[in-house]
Design goal:
By secondary structure, the chain is α/β, with parallel strands linked by helices. It folds into two domains: 170 residues, Thiolase/Chalcone synthase (Peroxisomal Thiolase, Chain A, domain 1, 3-Layer(aba) Sandwich); 143 residues, Peroxisomal Thiolase, Chain A, domain 1. The protein has nine helices and 13 strands. The relative contact order is 0.19.
Amino acid sequence: MIRSVVRGIGSALPRRIMKNAEFEGMVDTSDEWIVQRTGIQQRHIAADDETTASLGESAARAALASAGLTPDDIDLIVLATSTPDNTFPATAVNIQNRLGMQHGFAFDLQAVCSGFVYAVTTADLYIKGGLARRVLVIGSETFSRILDWSDRGTCVLFGDGAGALVLEAEESQGALSDRGLIAASLRSDGVHKEKLYVDGGPSTTGTVGHLRMEGREVFKHAVGMITDVIEETFRQAGVTADDIDWFVPHQANKRIIDASAKKLGIAEEKVVTTVQLHGNTSAASVPLALSVAAADGRIKKGDLVLLEAMGGGFTWGAVLLRW
Ligand code: ACO
């Protein structure tokens, strides 16, 4: 059988770091409130010349360099984003052009904060289906562009950035010890739309709109949904929490991350947390966290890595892979 194996990883962050204290003059909030309720200490905010495509391109180039590959080696680009540069064409095609690729194909995928988990799963199916041998899977976001900067309930939570993986087809016996994507579980349920959405769009208002969220409501559902898909993924793979080397969750809120790990019985030292550095970067959060943990030597070849995300829609999902 074929497995989709991680060959390279990279990330990119906007130049500007915005600390919590900067919000104190803008809305009625404090560094202390933000840290206590979310764990966030800072986030990166894109300048006018930093876009979803430019950040995605930088992350893709870094991933290619770490894989020892060039754009010529890539067959497909799947970009997870909810903040495309234009309504169309797809930002993935823009990135393809920026990389100088005049072969293969590229498309965007939209599942908000779960986008990267959906994109990895999608890339895996293209690889297994034989339509692509090497895929750049990118999560890139400029959420700062869709924030209502006067709404303290949302503007303090999000940041901009990008992360990318190169996935490559590799022959496998299908064993748990073999490298590559082992199991995945995806869900969505549109009944929750009003709890987290953007109040604009091409076919409704003709505007981009702003992010709206009932934070407490999202929080209430998050831990249960996250742990459900993870348990389903564990069942598929025949593993338990003890078998996991690294838990790399979506970075929305440290309290959600801690509560999910605790409910699943995943030891604290196996949890990769970067929300303090990046805030919630939506589809970029999981690959950014993976990049940090791979770069500092925590995640090593052969480790069993669990990814998870939950976001607007609602959408949610989990992926288990052998690094
Ligand atoms: N500073 C100070 N006070 C604030 C702020 C702020 N930035 N934001 C809200 N408050 C106030 C509220 O107005 C409220 O005041 P009130 O009691 O007078 O009404 C009080 O703080 C408590 O508000 P809650 O919403 O109950 O606070 P909570 O502890 O739930 O924390 C938070 C809010 C951080 C938003 C939390 O609910 C959360 O993280 N929710 C989940 C977000 C999430 O996971 N999103 C994931 C998906 S994102 C995506 O898909 C795009």
